[in-house]
Structure formats: C-alpha cells, structure tokens
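Annex B. Sample input.
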Amino acid sequence: MAGPHTSRLLFLVISFRRAEFLGRGMTYLPTPRRTESEGAQMRMFSLRWVFLSAVLVRCALAQTPALQMNVIYVCTDGQSFKVFSCDDTTGACDFQNYKKGQASQRGQALRVQLAALLPAKCHAQTPAEAQADPHRGEIPPTPSPFQARANAGSSGSRPAAAVNSKTGPGAGGFTGPGAGGFNVGDTVRVLSDGWQEAKIIQVHGNSYLVHMPNGVDVSKFWPTEVRRLGKLTAEDHAMGQYDVHDRVQVLVNGKWMEGEIRGQNLNMYDVKVKGVDTGFGSDIVNTTAENIRLSTTAAPPPPAQRAAGQPPKPGLTSCAGKYEGRWEHVSGMGGMTVIFRSGKATVTGGLGGEDVFDCFTGDGKIVFYKAGSFTPFSYAFDINNDGTLQTPLGPIKKMGN
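Annex B, continued. Sample output.
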C-alpha cells in the first residue's frame, strides 16, 4: 500500500524487434537501423506509455481507501480498531483493538495488513455508529518489534539499548529478567479475552512480547496483563494481582467490605460484595486494585452437604418410583427429554447439555436439586391434571421405559 510519503511506480520496458532466423533453433536480434524520425517516434511512444502507466496505477490506488490515523474502524466480524501512527521506514503501524467499546489490546501490525481490510471487511465508523457505540480507553504504546528487527538488520547486531530483549542463551540484548522476574522462554498467564497461557519471546522492562496459542505475537504489560502460572504470591497481591474467587476487601463509599473477585477487564476488577446494590439489583462493584486488598477475616465454613436421598426441606419426598421412564414432548417433535430413574432425573436438550439432578415432589410440582445441595435449580415441573408434566418448553408425557 502506498503511504502519504511514498509514490513509487514500476515501469515495464518492452522492446519489439524483428527476429531473424539463422537456422533450426538459432535466432539473433540484429542491431536496429533507425532513422532520426523513427527514433523520435519511439521516444514519443515511450513517453505515452509512461504517462498511461502512471494514470493506471493512480486509478488503482484511488479505489482503496487511505488508512486514516486516529479513526475508529468497525469490522464485519464485530471487531474494531484505531491506528495511531505508521512508520514509513518499517511499514509498521501502532494500533489498538477494542472489545465491546473498551480498549482491549495495543500492538504493532504492518500497514499493508491493516489496509487489506479496507473496505471489504472494515469501514470508518460513521457519526451514527459513534453515537450508538462510543469507544473508550487508550492503552499505553508498546515497543515495536518491527523497529527492533530493522535496527538489527541495519547494524548486523542486536544492541541491548535498542531492543532490550534476548532470543536464547548467549544472544545479544537484555539478558536479565523483566519486571515480575520473568525471562525469555518462560510460560506465563496473559490477559486476553480471559487469562491464557503464552510464551515470552522478548523482554522490554515491564513490557513482554509473548507468543499466543493462536500464533499471534502481542505485547503485554506487567503487572496488569502478565502474571505467573499457578497460585499468586503475597508479592503479586501487593502489586494488585488477584485471581477469580480470591476473597478480598473492597473500598465502597469509604468503607472496607468483604467481597470476592469475579472477573477482570484490564485494570478493572469485578468484585461481588454481599449487601451492596450498584444498580438494577446488581451486587458487583467495579474498581481498580488500589481499592482492593486481601481479606483478613477467616474463611466462611463450606456449605452443608445434603446426604444422598435426603429431602432438602420438609414437605418434599423423593420422586423415586413415581415417574420412572423416558418422558418427551407430547407433540413428538423433540425438545426436552427427561429420564427418571430411582430418584434421579436426567434432563437433555432444550436448555443445554445433559444435566443430572435429584428429584423431589411436593406442592403439585417436581423440583430439582444438584447432588448434595440444599438450593433448588432454577426451574421446576408442574404436575398437570392429565398426568403430563409442564416444563419450560411445554408439556411432556411418558413415552417409554
């Protein structure tokens, strides 16, 4: 793709000469004998050919939209990105991906790769699209691996000051661990649509270039996006790193409250805090690591486990021997299938995969509980007067044993 500072044309010079045949399989091109007028006509033809080639190339380039800087591009696959700048020397562009309108990843890609997406797959966001789906956030820029390669290629070596990285034992460049104590070749966890394992291929202080399982190389920052495998240490927690289900205390309206980590998006944590309503009945607090610390209170005892066959509450009795067999939709058109066997119900289809429950009857319903749990499942079956069972997907009846 041609950039704003490059305009290069390739010209094909074709020479037409009369071939003379000396014999079978032998030819030569005689020295042309031209008059002055013939030479002038040839020069005029060449100039016209050059002009026509330039026109054709410019027309072809005009059909591809220029890659604009600091403009959101929306793509047909639901992704979006923005290009901050491009380097004419390396051909690399500094760009950022967005996920659900929030900054997700920032890295380097070749200009030709990004331009190839236009306009078939991606287009500049329209004002109406920007109003309906604004994009927010900006991730700090990362060192460009393309520039490091360009420096190495031009100098014949890999100066540590230029690339701060290493590719193997004894290789030139930065040989010590980066922030967090990780080295080239280490496998770490990185934040990319959830936590995934990746291998470090370059170290740049607190920035790591990692190789993802999908084959893509991306830059990730410690401590927000890079952490060790396995259980986090006290040092990791001191740097603001927490895993899902960690018990923490979170600062809410000036008060430290007990909570549990439920998720993370860049430097923002989702913390479930009992008794807090953040809107629409949600008890999830979104905050940064500065407002989180490990809980110092004793862990609550594990929930009591219900013994096999034990009714979860008074008034319920096991469904064993009452509905044994295979039950399917009365229309015979598929949908939910339930197999009752010895006090258990295996439910398939309709609401997802196969689920196995303990089943109980009471108050005109069949209710379902997971083994050992005292909490009922989200749905129950009404017992109809005609002997059918009313499920969320319609009535079912016994079809076989």
